[in-house]
Amino acid sequence: MDTSTKVPRERIDSIVALAAAHVPASQKVAVEALAREYFRQLDAEDLADRSPDDLSGALLSHWQLGAVRAKGKSKVRVLSPTVTDQGWASRHSVVEIVNDDMPFLVDSTSAEVTREGLTIHLILHPIFGVQRDAAGGLTSIKPRSEAPQAAHESWMHIEIDRLVDPQQRSALVEGIERVLADVRAAVEDWKPMIARLHEAIASLEKAPAALPPAQVAESRAFLQWLAKDHLTLLGYRQHDLDIEHGEDGLRPDRRHRPRRIARDRTGKKAASFSALPPQRARWRAQRCRSSSSPGQHALDRGIAPATPTTSASSATTNAARL
């Protein structure tokens, strides 16, 4: 018999039994499904390094956090558990997250933890197929492979350097919530963003004759390269060229909904335009006006030197590698 797999299985069985003893009978099946997928990702050493009481406590803590979740909202908690306060303990602080499953979650969350100067000691990231009632209450939870048609949720358990100060824990929660909101905005707007990118590419096929053909071709090639998933597009805004206090500036066109993380930046003059030297800004404004025609737009790069726009309205795309 392969004892290398027998020991973890037996230990998981004991953890499952311990956790199930602390929940109502109606929840036992769901808790067991959660526990077996949850701890399947731990190796034998990690299992042996923690007591069953602490492992079952961590599991039930996460279960309690995810018991109710509003659709489209993330739930985040950071705690430094002690037997006195939580009934279980860890030498680390624990980040618990329940969120809709989507790309970039682990990388983005890890980056925020690292940005706070903290070390990550363990990550568990099971994905579950779940069912929730109208109030967000959890009614069913199974491993993703057993419920491929159900809504998928990401349940992250991350162990980090211990944070004794409650304010530090609160600040980390706020930072992670902000990052998850950015990830959600990026993922939800991905298809509309790509559609606008292709519209901008098409508009350059009919660029005004006054624009240098070489620059138009180079701009179009750049946008076509973006459209092939070489970079992750993070924001889209369309602008109008107007005059405020005697100065030319680009203002977001409110007829076109901003996309992704550009959503919360409407209403302000585009910094990329106003930061240009006066002579360069005047030249750009003249080019915009002299070459404008209805319905023609171009993209002003967010990651490279700006290219001439083809009308007083322009779309701005910010791109960056995650």
Describe this structure in words.
This protein has eleven helices and eleven strands. With 322 residues, it is of the alpha+beta class. The chain folds into two domains: 3-188, ACT domain (Alpha-Beta Plaits); 191-320, no CATH class. Strands 1, 2, 3, 4, 5 and 6 form a six-stranded antiparallel beta sheet that branches. A hairpin with a 2-residue loop joins strand 7 and strand 8. The longest helix has 23 residues, at 166-188. The two termini are 45 Å apart. The model is unreliable at 1-7 and 289-322 (pLDDT under 50).
Number of strands: 11
Tally of individual domains = 2
Number of helical runs? 11
Radius of gyration: 26 Å
Element-level helix/strand string: HHHHEHEHEEEEHHHEEEHHEE
Characteristic key phrases:
11 helices; 5-stranded mixed sheet; Alpha-Beta Plaits; disordered C terminus; alpha+beta; 6-stranded antiparallel sheet; 322 residues; single chain; elongated
What topology emerges from the helices and strands here?
Blueprint: H1 3-20, H2 28-40, H3 44-48, H4 52-66, E1 75-79, H5 83-86, E2 93-100, H6 105-115, E3 120-124, E4 127-132, E5 138-143, E6 151-160, H7 166-188, H8 190-204, H9 213-230, E7 232-244, E8 247-252, E9 259-260, H10 271-274, H11 278-290, E10 299-301, E11 313-320
Parallel strand pairs: 10-11
Antiparallel strand pairs: 1-2, 2-6, 3-6, 4-5, 4-6, 7-8, 7-9, 7-11
Please provide a brief summary of the model.
With 322 residues, this protein is α+β, with helices and mostly antiparallel strands. 43% of the residues lie in helices and 22% in strands. It folds into two domains: 3-188, Alpha-Beta Plaits (2-Layer Sandwich), CATH 3.30.70.260; 191-320, no CATH class.
